[in-house]
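Office hours follow-up: a student asked to see two folded examples consecutively, so here they are.
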Amino acid sequence: MLRKEWYSFKLDNEPLWFEIMKADQYIVMTDINGWSLKVEAIEKGEAIQSMIELINQEHPTG
């Protein structure tokens, strides 16, 4: 069974929502500037952290 939940991350003071799905492992997906990003990891925290790192590479702030 696939469980879904949401996680909000602030990017440039705008909320960016992560869709978190749990099947065999955690899948975190989001859309940013028309791009769909997806990461997978065994641990939810690891998947979220990987997504944040990916966003920071793709969309540097500051």
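And the second, which I mentioned at the end of office hours:
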Amino acid sequence: MIKGTSSPAKKDDFIRVLDSSDRSMSRFLSYCKKSKAIIKFKGWYYISPLICLKGKFISTDTVKIFLKEDP
């Protein structure tokens, strides 16, 4: 999905946009999950609303997912 919005993304989207290898992206996503910058929910990656605050749009669905996973 990734089109400049806060849409959820798949690993393949990150690989395509960042022009990276599968292995590098796996390590990157793992690091981001440990630091709670992203969350994987039902196969989709969501960026933390705290990181998105400087953007134009934050999906309330993403906020709800983060609150449910990390109260």
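Two things to take away from it. Residues 22-34 form the longest helix (13 residues). The CA atoms of residues 8 and 35 lie 18 Å apart.
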